[in-house]
Design brief:
- The chain is built from 9 helices and 10 strands.
- It is α/β, with parallel strands linked by helices.
- The chain has one domain: 3-Layer(aba) Sandwich (Rossmann fold).
- The strands form 2 sheets. Strands 6-7-8-3-9-10 form a 6-stranded mixed β-sheet, sandwiched between helices.
- The C terminus is likely disordered.
Length: 253
């Protein structure tokens, strides 16, 4: 469903991502791992359109996404949750999710939920938004402003926005970073549920190897911007190159 062909980017003399070619099939969760500075988030930025590549292409369902802005890629089905939250501080939790749902409606319905909107449309969007918030255990916070939420709840709200867009590709960049011990399981359980939708691709950048081992069907390892390992989780974690480059182990005999 998703493919990168020779995808790379150079910043001056520094190669941040080096000609990465990789295909991601529907129904799989792929963890992208590597040491700090390996190029994981930059690779995500190239796929989702936050950065324009120096070389290579991104394809979704066989269609080139080259030249499309991040917003258009999102409409095509590439959904991204960021490592740093990007919310509207003066909008409520419910308003965030309702607007994300509204973005999927036909163009004539995207002008805003005002006094001229048909009440049934308003009510339907609100009900769907509340259902998503219930899944994230945030129904009781629906009237709070985003700026009033804890960091962990802001991360949960971003996942709700991603789910509202119903993308073909889910991209999670360290989804549990900064969350408390009690908050993280909610996000991980949602990702497990998303895995049951066998027509979606899930990409996960994660440093917590216990999470990777539990969730991943496949592991891709980046090191210094290059793809150095790709395969089944146990095979990759047992490989010499990963033990040396990622886990910091001494070279094996």
């Amino acid at each position: 469903m998703l493919e990168t062909r020779g995808l790379g980017i150079r910043f001056g003399g520094h190669v941040a991502v080096e000609a990465v070619s990789c295909s991601f099939a529907a129904g799989t969760l792929t963890a992208i791992v590597g040491p700090n500075g390996a190029g994981k988030t930059t690779y995500f930025n190239l796929i989702s359109g936050q950065l324009a590549p120096t070389t290579g292409s991104v394809l979704l369902d066989g269609r080139l996404l080259d030249g499309l802005a991040a917003s258009e890629r999102a409409r095509q089905g590439v959904g991204r949750a960021f490592q740093l939250t990007q919310l509207f501080p003066s909008l409520s939790v419910l308003e965030h999710v309702r607007l994300a749902l509204q973005a999927l409606m036909p163009g004539s319905h995207r002008r805003g939920l005002d006094a001229w909107r048909i009440w049934s449309d308003h009510r339907d969007l609100t009900a769907r938004a509340e259902t998503l918030l219930e899944m994230l255990a945030m129904r009781g916070q629906s009237s709070l402003l985003a700026s009033q939420l804890s960091h962990g709840d802001q991360r949960k709200l971003e996942v709700a926005l991603l789910m509202a867009l119903d993308p073909k590709v889910y991209m999670f960049d360290e989804p549990t970073a900064g969350m408390s011990h009690d908050e993280a399981p909610v996000i991980l359980e949602l990702i497990r549920k998303l895995k049951t939708q066998r027509d979606r691709v899930i990409l996960l950048v994660e440093h917590k190897m216990d999470v990777v081992r539990e969730l991943a069907d496949r592991i891709v390892v980046l090191h210094n911007g290059a793809l150095v390992a790709d395969g089944a989780p146990q095979d990759v974690m047992d490989s010499k190159v990963v033990r040396e480059a990622y886990l910091g182990a001494r070279p094996l005999p």
